[in-house]
Amino acid sequence: MSIFCHWDLQSHHGAKIVTQTQTTKDHFIQDISWLRREAIDLGFGDIRVSDTDLSVAGPRLKEWLDAGRHGDMNYMRERAHLRLNPQELQPGTVRVLTVRMDYLPDTSEMRQAVDWRNKEIARWDEPSQAVVAMYARGRDYHKVLRQRLQSLADVIEKKIGPFGYRVFVDSGPVMEVEMANKSGLGWRGKHTLLLNREAGSMFFLGEILVDVPFPVDEPITSHCGECSACINICPTQAITAPYQLDARRCISYLTIEHQGSIPEELRPLMGNRVYGCDDCQLVCPWNKFAQLSSVPDFLPRHGLEHADLLNLWSWSEEDFLSKHEGSPIRRIGYEAWRRNLAVGMGNALRSETLDDGVREKIIGGLKQVLPNASDMLKEHIEWALMQTSKVSK
Fold this sequence. Notes:
Blueprint: E1 6-11, E2 14-19, H1 21-30, H2 33-41, E3 46-50, H3 57-66, H4 75-78, H5 80-83, H6 86-89, E4 95-102, H7 108-112, H8 117-122, E5 131-132, H9 141-160, E6 165-168, H10 176-183, E7 187-188, E8 194-195, E9 203-210, H11 229-233, E10 239-241, E11 244-245, H12 251-257, E12 273-275, H13 279-282, H14 309-313, H15 317-323, H16 333-350, H17 356-369, H18 375-386
Parallel strand pairs: 5-12
Antiparallel strand pairs: 1-2, 3-4, 4-9, 6-9, 7-8, 10-11
């Protein structure tokens, strides 16, 4: 029933019109089962509601920032007060709607796998491969989620009338994991990501800040128990303790957010991971239950699910820009992309299992670029070439 409908009631004294708009609006606000159905129809895996009180998160955020664990992400400190006060981002906000959107690609290979994680883990030991985090192999999730969150906001407006809101997708000062945890969408894992019993952690989060008093959902209990698989597997030991991450050591930070020279002591630990890192997620037992995405935009593009270092190194800047059009990878730029590849190629040269023919091609490819490389890239290429001497004879 439309909230703008009116019922015509006949009486002996003539026609009487009773407006039902407010009653219907209140019903849609108090019973949000319709909202969950609409979210699912738009491709979201789930939606939950929380209030805006993030006071518990304040001391933890301050401690993390004071310790410098945010690295070069100065915007984290500069806008910290906004992260803790959603109502300052959108005046009048009283609730936060948090959605989950699964991103595992729905391919025949994924459907046929007994455990999809095994193939991804096996790539760690293939030195000539270039591993790109799974979330980045398809279209930029920012665009996909933002469009669908806007569509969801449009649906809400049709149900309850005009309301105040603002959409966020990992691009504003929003503590999305904290709010998702608060809403019961999942619990914070020891790797600091959100976990869900039915979906693991292989999903994106998005939020709509609203001025509508929808009923809030209750948080759920953590189900990590004594497991420490994510902590133990981290190549750079970036997870310094349960629920504590030092971004300065995290491969995702180093290959995406960090724009300068990668610390030399961390380069050998990065292996063949050239954009992001899924290690802590791949060993998490809950990710056996990760859901395949219903969104075609997250299907891999340009063979990134099985790319090799030499092929990606051969791309010109024009190739990089055109192939990564609409991809989150484009944001880091060609220089950082080649820096990451150079580290991966250096680590390939360290490997005793690398095919001799591939080894010579990698050395040749690095030397070809070296003369015209920037100082920053030259540093990483020279380091990579030196790794040949690390191979045991």
